Amino acid sequence: xxxxxxxxxxxxxxxxxxxxxxxxxxxxxxxxxxxxxxxxxxxxxxxxxxxxxxxxxxxxxxxxxxxxxxxxxxxxxxxxxxxxxxxxxxxxxxxxxxxxxxxxxxxxxxxxxxxxxxxxxxxxxxxxxxxxxxxxxxxxxxxxxxxxxxxxxxxxxxxxxxxxxxxxxxxxxxxxxxxxxxxxxxxxxxxxxxxxxxxxxxxxxxxxxxxxxxxxxxxxxxxxxxxxxxxxxxxxxxxxxxxxxxxxxxxxxxxxxxxxxxxxxxxxxxxxxxxxxxxxxxxxxxxxxxxxxxxxxxxxxxxxxxxxxxxxxxxxxxxxxxxxxxxxxxxxxxxxxxxxxxxxxxxxxxxxxxxxxxxxxxxxxxxxxxxxxxxxxxxxxxxxxxxxxxxxxxxxxxxxxxxxxxxxxxxxxxxxxxxxxxxxxxxxxxxxxxxxxxxxxxxxxxxxxxxxxxxxxxxxxxxxxxxxxxxxxxxxxxxxxxxxxxxxxxxxxxxxxxxxxxxxxxxxxxxxxxxxxxxxxxxxxxxxxxxxxxxxxxxxxxxxxxxxxxxxxxxxxxxxxxxxxxxxxxxxxxxxxxxxxxxxxxxxxxxxxxxxxxxxxxxxxxxxxxxxxxxxxxxxxxxxxxxxxxxxxxxxxxxxxxxxxxxxxxxxxxxxxxxxxxxxxxxxxxxxxxxxxxxxxxxxxxxxxxxxxxxxxxxxxxxxxxxxxxxxxxxxxxxxxxxxxxxxxxxxxxxxxxx
Length: 739
Description:
- Helices cover 45% and strands 18% of the residues.
- By secondary structure, it is an alpha+beta fold.
- The chain has 4 domains: 43 residues; 128 residues, CATH 2.40.50.140; 255 residues, no CATH class; 251 residues, Ribonuclease Z/Hydroxyacylglutathione hydrolase-like (Metallo-beta-lactamase, Chain A, 4-Layer Sandwich).
- An 8-stranded mixed sheet has the order 16-15-14-13-12-11-24-25, covered by helices on one side. A 7-stranded mixed sheet has the order 17-18-19-20-21-22-23. The chain has a 5-stranded mixed β-barrel with strand order 1-3-5-7-6.
- The longest helix has 35 residues.
């Protein structure tokens, strides 16, 4: 308030002094003060009935309220196929709570927003604005516990969502369908209509339908993780962020209709605002779509009022209105990218174009009236080409800082890839808009447009696939905080009941385990990107269980892997069986007494022992018996990895007479119930690292905790403290990554 009052005083002084620069500074101060006030109201405007205060962790409740977001379908598809596993589909929507009921109690009034994730729910079972009743277990969004991990708590709190509820489709009941008088019903129907129109005539071409849906209204649920990574590497992921291109194409369709009806575009263009708002809302309220819609609306108003306008003023006005409506957008990555890229496009594109537009002109000594028709044709072609180049370069420059900051990646091939793909993508959007416009009265036209788009999308896919396959087409730089961090060091990731350890050496990076397919994709791979990894030197498949090595097939999608080291014993694990059968992986078996030497450390394999005969080998299985490894740094630190073992393995390790002492002991969750005193005495660790998290919460044996306490062993629970960092020096304690 003080800042606002000062700004208002300065503004009045500038009016008296007739000084434009003082007026601008005062305006900025007033706007900042207004933003602070809006932010305070936005965060603090809650009552005592808000669900964030009423609900406890892991509490079972029933809620009633209105669906306040467009339901969206999500799935975890880590294979290279487009069709996801049905069991991994879920539908998410935001519920504006009105009533709450605990077990055995009556309904009570409540308020607040809850994110509902329902497995196996049909996408159109509930709609935007419907009154529904849900029941399930609630929990608070989880903070990031690992480097590079998506911070769901921060993301949802910026959308004023403080509670999550997960359930099955049978736990969602529709109480009342939203009426036609509510615009949210129109948004839902239009989204369903677009989905049907863009799939006409495509049959089983699910990839083409997924790309069309992504480019027209930002729905990428049909994409495999492999294709997501290819689009990221080539810098073409922006094709699926609904932006000014989509809004301008749809507005052009409306302009053509006005022209056909003989109406003045300058006078009646504001009538396009409601349908464009329905379209922007049908995209799920993507920041880029909302920004483009507000800019277009301001432009139409300027036309109607016959007022001058500039692109920068339109952008600033759009940002002001959006932040007044939702201050949390300021911290949204999509909003930041959209505004930054748009600003650079407005400022830089004309500069590049003016600097090179005369490069194809004939000699300056020749008057323009003497230029031949062929020379004019060459000039027009060059300037059209220069327009595409200018836009591609400007978009690349505008997105580069934020892409590096948020995703720690630079795409060297991005300018070339966008130059090839963006013009074709513009045609796809135009034909997609025509398909949507004609599907309701002449489906055959829509089928024709979709079939042309089939060829164009295949060209885009082939181009992206080619550019992404070029060596060094992109580079993960890592976070700036990791550029000068000491090496070697070990990062033990908090992957619940899975197992994932990253070893960062001076000559390369090694990965132990990696976790299941979900943990690999959502935790391990983001951590590798955060550290600036571009190649994995060695992947230790430390056990045969899916929770430890189930994500091994996903890793090569992101990073080349030189070699895989696996347990030498036979295994029934499906992931290992697929890898052996494919023949694409450089798999090697390791046994006890094998040693792997690096520059600053070495590995010692302590288990498994080689079987004495074929019969004894068949009796052993590595599914429940993992590698036992010892990491020895030249600076003195010793770490023992004990992922999984049964009593027979423990007896063998104790009886073999090998050196197994270690400063740090890293345990798998399966060993937290029973760990022999004899083995603990032989290892003599100072710190024990383990995780008690997971779908089934692991309870540490009280006897084991007593053993740790008696031996003055420090305990590091990854589920409570997050990822742990170990340096090679004994003088450095085990520390949290976030401190």
